[in-house]
Amino acid sequence: MRDSRYTLFYDGHCALCHGAVRFVAKRDRRDRVIRFAPLHGALFAESIPKTEAGALPDSIVVLTEDGRLLSRSDAVLHILTGLGGGWRVLARVGGLVPRALLNATYDGIAGVRYRVFGTRDETCPVIPGPLRSKFDLRA
Question: What is the pLDDT of residue 1?
Answer without folding.
Answer: 41
